[in-house]
Automatic annotation (TrEMBL), chain A:
Protein known as: YeeE/YedE thiosulfate transporter family protein
Keyword field: Membrane, Transmembrane, Transmembrane helix
Organism classification: Bacteria, Pseudomonadati, Pseudomonadota, Betaproteobacteria, Burkholderiales
One Pfam assignment: Sulf_transp
InterPro entries the record matches: Sulf_transp_TsuA/YedE (IPR007272)
Ranges that cross the membrane: 46-67, 79-101, 108-130, 165-185
Superkingdom of source: Bacteria
TrEMBL record, chain B:
The organism's taxonomic lineage, starting at the top: Bacteria, Pseudomonadati, Pseudomonadota, Betaproteobacteria, Burkholderiales
Protein name: YeeE/YedE thiosulfate transporter family protein
Membrane protein topology class: Multi-pass membrane protein
A Pfam family annotated for this UniProt entry: Sulf_transp
InterPro entries attached to this UniProt entry: Sulf_transp_TsuA/YedE
Keyword vocabulary terms for this entry: Cell inner membrane, Cell membrane, Membrane, Transmembrane, Transmembrane helix, Transport
Keyword Cell inner membrane: yes
Natural source organism: Thiobacter aerophilum
Length: 199, 230
């Protein structure tokens, strides 16, 4: 596919996502923060449903070797980076998606957050350039590489290649786990509704 | 009776810091987060009814169920995310799953190139890992989101300037933005690639990232609470 076609598909996909997120007021940050701070799960349920659909879709297509999975090494830096990201998104009140959506709604705070996300990325590129960690391309082999703090990567497709079990089987297991979490949330909500009704 | 009141994210800052706290004082709740559930709902109802003039958007988010009107009522996020998930599967088949952080990095590179020019090439990150170029598809997802959200906001008359009023909010946003930027680059992924890319692909990085982001959000919430209360 030509690069221009790729960019156009990406733009159209992004536009639909932006519109839907704006109209539904979905926010990833809220999905985690509201569950932690207020025990409300409006966004968390949406996140889980999307993950369930995607797990089935992705692993089904990976079973037949279709699709473009992300292949890159992960390790301690993945955990650490997302930890910083998690703190940052709660403080900024928006994640990567909602900063764009809110900026488009006229939220000056979101534009400011976006600007400082760019600055943060640039600052990190200076640090990376200084000591080339993590992860320098040479350390990324796809297999565990403890010296470079890399755990390699494994996904449903590589599991299928290593074990011979179709990727969709792993996908179904993950689907069941996510469904379990979703149902637990629904149970909690129902119990609360009954509590409120009794008051 | 007001049912299913939805607090908006950007209003949450304001609501929590001003009205919510004062109203709860009035309702004699000892601590904001230990409020009896019924009282909390009554407070929410009160905020929605009293806040209508100041925050017109709040009034528009009262969900009344029934049929979906795209530009009048708020969509059910479960429905919206299900549609996005199905579209994301098509994107996964054609070019790759939905991510945002990579596109933002490329924008950073392009902006830095515009400011620094050829000097940027002296930084190994921008010559080895991310060479700034305009035809990187992930960048256009972010631009598309901006465009789509702008369209949605204008058509539903929800576009208006919102400016954080207090210095503490500006400080939190600045710090949060910096942490997000550093975090994305350190991990090589953002929250979108975590929840909508890596974890559904059952990539090991997805699980690492989810545990990281949940731990981070928890710590962030503690800090956030402290700052609101202090």
């Amino acid at each position: 596919m030509s690069t221009i076609a790729e960019c156009m598909i990406a733009f159209i996909f992004g536009s639909v996502v932006g519109l839907l997120v704006q109209r539904s007021r979905f926010c990833n940050t809220a999905a985690l923060r509201d569950a932690i701070m207020f025990q409300t799960y409006r966004n968390t349920k949406a996140l889980l449903v999307a993950m369930m659909i995607l797990t089935l879709g992705f692993t089904a297509f990976m079973t037949v070797g279709a699709g473009h999975p992300l292949d890159f090494d992960v390790g301690l830096n993945t955990f650490l980076g997302l930890f910083l990201f998690g703190v940052g998104m709660v403080l900024a009140g928006a994640c990567t998606v909602s900063t764009w959506v809110k900026a488009a709604e006229g939220n000056v705070g979101a534009v400011w957050a976006l600007l400082f996300t760019f600055i943060g990325m640039f600052l990190f590129s200076l640090l990376w350039s200084y000591n080339q960690w993590p992860p320098a391309p040479a350390s990324m082999t796809g297999d565990p590489n403890p010296e470079a703090l890399q755990a390699g990567f494994a996904n449903a497709r590589t599991l299928q290649e290593k074990t011979g079990i179709p990727a969709i089987v792993f996908g179904l297991i993950q689907f069941a786990v996510l469904l379990g979490i979703y149902r637990a949330i629904r149970r909690k909500e129902k119990a609360r509704e009954q509590d409120d009704a009794h008051e | 009776m007001i049912k299913g009141v939805v607090l908006l994210d950007e209003d949450l800052h304001l609501l929590l810091s001003y009205r919510f706290f004062r109203l709860q004082r009035r309702h004699k709740c000892l601590a904001r987060y230990l409020c009896p559930r019924g009282a909390k709902r009554r407070l929410l109802a009160k905020i929605t009814t009293t806040g209508r003039a100041r925050w017109p958007i709040l009034a528009s988010t009262i969900q009344q169920g029934g049929k979906v009107e795209l530009f009048k009522k708020t969509l059910d996020p479960v429905f919206a995310l299900a549609v996005i998930a199905v579209l994301d599967i098509f994107l996964f088949l054609t070019i790759g799953a939905w991510t945002v952080g990579g596109g933002e990095t490329m924008m950073t590179g392009l902006m830095a190139q515009a400011i620094l020019g050829e000097d940027l090439k002296r930084l190994p990150f921008w010559s080895l890992v991310f060479q700034p170029h305009w035809d990187y598809w992930k960048m256009y997802i972010s631009l598309g989101m901006f465009f789509g959200a702008f369209l949605g906001a204008v058509l539903s008359k929800e576009f208006y300037l919102r400016v954080p009023r207090r210095l503490s909010e500006w400080v939190m946003i600045t710090l949060g933005g910096l942490l997000m930027g550093v975090g994305i680059r350190l991990a090589f992924v953002c929250n979108v690639s975590t929840f909508f890319g890596l974890t559904p692909e059952m990539n090991l990085g997805g699980y690492l990232a989810v545990s990281g982001i949940v731990a981070g959000a928890w710590v962030g919430s503690l800090v956030y609470k402290k700052m609101l209360e202090g």
